[in-house]
Structures are given as C-alpha cells and as structure tokens.
Design goal:
Helix content is 27%, strand content 25%. It is of the alpha+beta class. The protein has a single domain, classed as Metallo-dependent phosphatases (Purple Acid Phosphatase, chain A, domain 2), CATH 3.60.21.10. Helix 2 packs parallel to helix 4 and helix 3 packs parallel to helix 6. The structure holds fe (ii) ion.
C-alpha cells in the first residue's frame, strides 16, 4: 500500500533535543496539507504554537518546540494525549534500530509485514517504556528516488549534464517530492507512527538516506551536477524529517556550525551519545573530512557510559584481504564500492586507526559501546584487551529483510580472521548470546537497558526471540 504524498497527514513525530535541568527538551513535527491550520500543542500548563519549517508539494511541515518535566511527561495534540518517559535518573531503556526499508519496491510492501519489528518495539514499550529511540542509518531507502526524471534516470551508471539551471531545479523538485514520499511512507505506518509519537528520536544518516554507496562512488558521479543536486536535496530532507530542522537550526543541533559535517553529541543523565557523520564528507579516499574530524575530536565522552553511533560498523573483520582478492577477479570488481564503504577498506586504514585511537582515548574516562547497523544482520564484536574492552553491538535491519543464511555463514567464517589495526587491541567478532554463529540473519532491533546503574544489551530477533541480556562492561 503506497501512501499518497499529495495529501498526506503525519505526526506528531518526536525529536530529542537535550536536557535543561531535569526537564526534557523535545520537538514535535507534523505534516499537513497546505492551508490546514495546525492545533496548539499542550504540555504542562503551557500551550505551544508551531513554527512552519517549509512546504513541499501540497504539504506543510510544522514544528513545536517544548519541554516535558520529570513529574509530567504527557503532551496533548488534537484530541490525543501522548505519554513520554521523562524520569531518566534511574533505570532506563533506549531502543536502537537501523535499515528501515529496502532498496527496491519498499513503497509497495505490505505495511504489516514491513513494520513487524516496529510493532514488536511498540509492545516492548508498553511493557517497559523506552526513553529514547536511536536510529543508526538508512532510515529510508531513497535509491529509487532518482527514477522518473530524465537527468537522473540512469543514476549512478550515468550522470547526465543539465543544459541550464531550470533543468537542474526541476530535478531538485522531483527528488524533493520523492524523498518526502519515502519519509512519509516510513513514518506513517501504524507501528512506527505510534512509537515515534511517544519516544523522542535521535538519528544519524547512512548511504541509503542519500543513495546506495554515497561517497564511495567515483568522483565523476559524486561531484557531477546531478550528484551534487541529489546530495543537496537528500540533506535538506534528512534535516527536515530526521531532525525536524532547517539550515538555520544547524548551529543549535550539530557540532560543526558550518553544517558541512552533521555530527552531533547529546546526553541523558549518566549517558553520553556521540554520532560522527560518516556520510557528509565521505569520498573514495576518506571517511570523514576536516569538519567531521574536528567535530569528532571535540566530542566529550560520558563520565559513566558513552554510546558511539557508527552508522558503518567500526569493529569488523579483516576486509582488506577480501578487497585485495576481489580486485584481482574482474567479475568481483563491482562489489568494490561496497567494500570501499567500510572502515576496514584498505583505502581507509589510516583513518580507521585514527578513529579507534579516539575511541580508546574516550575509553579512559568511562566504558564505550559502539552501536552500529548497515549490514542487515545482527552481530557483536569486542576490542581488547579485557581491562580496556570496547563492545560493538550491531542491529540491522528493522525493516530490511536479512540476506541468505549462507551469506551470513561465509561472513562468519571470514570474521574468524579478526584484526588488530591498533597493536595490543585485537578485534574479535562474536555470536550474540545464545546464538551459534557470528552473524544472525533475522530482522532485529536492539534494546539498551540500564538497571541498578549497569547497562545490558538485548537483541530482539524476529524468529529467535529476545537474547539473554548481555552486560556492557
Ligand atoms: Fe541498510
């Protein structure tokens, strides 16, 4: 079932902004047909009028900025009331999901089947509420947005040159509508809509929020006028739908005030969340550029626990061997872009080491856990030694179906190789608690649970159910 973007109605979708004392600062976004007057939002004793963020096609996107207190976490909009978990001082739950869609035909999937794990998350929330929903990349799959316009029809195989600015702006309009349509699709389903009205979200993007392999494509594509137009629109829509923000909000929400890198840092009591932007500046020979590195090196770790969101897994098997091998086999070269997209690519070795050393520096202050998605499998990894252990939890995808078991097994065998890019800090891939193989090929999302001051991770797996809680220390 495809939602008709032309006359859509969406929201509220809740976004986490930060803490002011013990009050939660949030934003709520609604999308309405132009001309429809949005209601006032009520929180505590205050009424809030929304601000118009922008119009796309026949729809307008509005944002309410408000705070929720620890004693009153309920807000009202229209005839609905929404309760938000605002007591964050003791036990706490955070959900982490990634890969919310598929490359082909995602708009036409059966909604109930597509959103099964979102429904699961809603049930979990009813039993014990999540305080935050982290989204680790590929919140939409925009791959097909380039279809249906003569300039981008053959993307990424071919990037045609526009004859003039009008043609390029026509493409921008086309893409804007297509991206918005996908965001509406991703957010309007019963389960995602329900959870996102009640749990504030924080998101970082990955390639499919732009296009498959963005940044790892050849420069002739990325830096073509069509490529740059695609990036400009994807970024606009990412800000709008994943952060309820426009260009002017960048200095308030992101670390790099120029907005070149959209890296961010947030905190909740006793936990710090760091999210370097691994897409904005990506190129064939770099994961981040000057702005991303400045933002990352300015990040401050938590004093009790730090979660680092790395849209692409930071701790992985020794892929450089595979990459070398693949380059020697002509038929395999087409997979090179996929490998280029990984931290473990030979082209990114120096930067990978730089990032791992940064993580080890943060680790001196408090435990660091890396959260990651991207691979449409669930797995975990550790970087040693034990006394400096860094966990990596991979949960992907919530809506993207898993690749075949055979693929997961081969990857598991390969992952047996391990790696130690920083000497004395070996990386090992491990199965999830209760699983025999290193990679679990099922749809999934992750739950991070703080009880009595200790963090545990639970994977919610579509077929195998919930894993035993795993301590993060
Ligand atoms: Fe993905």
């Amino acid at each position: 079932m495809t939602v008709e973007f032309e006359a859509a109605r969406l929201g509220p979708i809740l976004y986490y902004r930060g803490l002011k004392g013990d009050a939660l600062q949030v934003a709520a976004m609604v999308l309405l047909p132009i001309g429809e007057e949005p209601d006032l939002l009520e929180a505590g004793d205050a009424q809030h009028a929304p601000k118009l963020l922008r119009e796309i096609g026949r729809n307008a996107i509005w944002r309410y900025d408000f705070t929720l207190t620890q004693s009153n976490g309920t807000y009202h909009l229209g005839d609905q009331s929404y309760s938000v978990q605002t007591d964050l001082t003791g036990d706490m739950r955070i959900a982490f999901a990634s890969c919310n869609g598929e490359e082909e035909g995602d708009l036409d999937r059966d909604q109930e089947e597509r959103n099964l794990m979102w429904a699961h998350m809603c049930d979990a929330h009813r039993r014990a509420p999540f305080a935050l929903l982290l989204q680790g990349g590929d919140q939409i799959y925009a791959d097909e947005a380039t279809q249906g316009h003569p300039l981008s029809e053959a993307w990424p195989d071919k990037a045609d040159r526009p004859r003039n600015a009008e043609e390029l702006e026509d493409l921008a309009d086309h893409l804007r509508q297509r991206f918005a349509e996908r965001y509406v699709q991703a957010l309007f389903g019963e389960a995602p809509r329900w959870i996102m009205a009640r749990v504030p979200t924080l998101a970082i993007w990955d390639d499919h929020d732009i296009c498959d392999g963005w940044g790892s494509l050849y420069r002739s594509k990325t830096y073509s006028e069509v490529g740059q137009c695609l990036y400009r629109v994807a970024r606009e829509m990412y800000l709008l739908f994943q952060h309820a923000a426009v260009e002017a909000d960048i200095p308030d929400l992101f670390l790099d005030k120029t907005g070149t890198s959209l890296s961010w840092q947030r905190a909740l009591p006793g936990v710090t969340l760091l999210a370097p932007d691994l897409r904005a500046e990506r190129g064939r020979r770099q994961v981040m550029g000057a702005y991303g590195w400045s933002a990352t090196e300015a990040m401050e770790p938590g004093t009790e626990h730090t979660f680092l969101i790395s849209s692409v897994p930071l701790l992985g098997p020794r892929l450089s061997l595979v990459e070398g091998l693949m380059m020697m086999i002509p038929t395999m070269q087409k997979y090179e872009d996929d490998l280029r997209d990984q931290w473990q690519s030979r082209a990114h070795r120096d930067e990978w080491v730089r990032m791992l050393k940064q993580v080890l520096k943060w680790r001196e202050t408090a435990p660091v856990t890396v959260l990651s998605g991207e691979i449409h499998l669930a797995t975990r990894a550790e970087m040693g030694p034990d006394e400096m252990r860094v966990h990596q939890l991979v949960a992907s995808g919530i809506a993207h179906r898993a690749p075949p078991q055979g693929y997961a097994r081969s990857l598991g065998t390969l992952a047996g190789l391990g790696d130690a890019p920083v000497s004395g800090h070996p990386i090992r891939i491990h199965p999830l608690p209760g699983q025999k193989h290193r990679y679990t090929a099922e749809r999934n999302y992750l739950e991070l649970r703080r009880t009595g001051g200790t963090w545990h991770a639970v994977w919610h797996l579509e077929d195998s159910g919930d894993t035993e809680p795993m301590a993060l220390e």
